[in-house]
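lol ok so funny story. i was supposed to be doing the assay writeup but got distracted and ended up predicting the structure for this chain instead. priorities right. anyway since i did it might as well share w the group, maybe its usefull for someone
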Amino acid sequence: MVNIITKIKESNKELKNREIEGILYLLLTSQNLKNNDLIKQTGLPKETLKAFKASISYMLEDPTKDLLILKTQYQEELSALNLRSYAWSLLPEEDKDLAQKLRDIRSKYNLNPKREFDQFFATEETSIAKAKMILNKCDVEGKDIALLGDDDLVSISLFLIGANPKSVVVFDIDADILSAIETVSATLGIENVRTVQYDFRNNPDSRYLEKFDIVVTDPPYTSSGIKLFLNRAVQLLAKSLDYTGKYIFLYYGNSFKSPEKTLKIQDIINRFHLVIEDRINKFARYNGAESIGSASSVYVLKATPFTTELSDLSDFSDIYTYSDVSEEKFPYVDQHTFKVLGVSATMLKSKSALQKAAGEFCKLHRLRVVDSKITNFKGDGFTLTFVLSNSNLLFHTWPELSAVHVDLITCSPIYNENELSRSLMRLFDAKFIESRKVE
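and the output, tada:
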């Protein structure tokens, strides 16, 4: 088995050995397995599985077809290997009866996803799992729950699983979704579900501010979309006066080949002073969204007494990936600024010493220099400018203040980022340092 997996690994370096074994297990044991079925079961991006399929084309009856059938020879070889299944997600065990009830509801009201709102309907099994996640994590009895968008019908799923919250308020821009939820609630005798048609780009009605104990959102997967919906969630969440916490359930998906996006999400969450109490990878599965493996992760965020909304929000006229905006690319861009204080006059007046310290700083943090320039100013000040392969770095000296100002803009995660301040302190033999990270 090791030899086969090692061979396949050569053409699929981004996949773990256990993932390769898991895909082979699915190919061997599944009936009528198609390309999209493999995406849904694994949660891997379409392009990743396309490359995998090409790498094992010699094993397939017809690699050009959608149906994935192993040749008899390889069925026998793989059967002899005792392949193990792989836990593609920690998604709870499916409740087929409840999922079917939800499937019947969705079918009856002919609900279809609207691409202009970035809608990709979750599978019915996922909608039930989302409701169970809330019930398992929180004491919902007597609590107020807000759903910021509910094309997955989590509001209905909560009552299908027997939850008994005080109220559920669904905020959504889509009138068809809201109408269906109202009708289904009335049919099922659910009295404590309310709907509000709401465009999240507008400020929320003041009567809903700080009202809810639990907020659930599956926002557009753009940087501005995440920030906007999370900001609205914090605004609607009641203040947490202790450490038992109010909760936000945030869903976000991206390809595992774009870890910088996951890091950016963590940065955004940190800005709100929310605690990531749990994160379950590929928890939710969707119909469509193959580019991200038809899956998203759930972030269970606990509010603290320090949780706050953001005041530096930008223009949110385009928050959807459907829009033709550069934001869709969701680049990783961070800026670090440092005031290095108490630097000796000898260091500040020596061009060679400054260049040596700056060069060593780049080496320590693997910042590859493409070009550099040093500029002299009156009063013995220097500015050292470095053009880096994926960022820019500037050092400016202030001899009269015994200080060096450092500005680093990066388009990718920095090696040993937590040690940036310590490195500058040591290299410039400084007494103090002030640092700030700008998103």
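The domain at 2-79 is CATH 1.10.10 (Arc Repressor Mutant, subunit A). Confidence is low (pLDDT under 50) at residues 322-328.
back to the writeup now i swear
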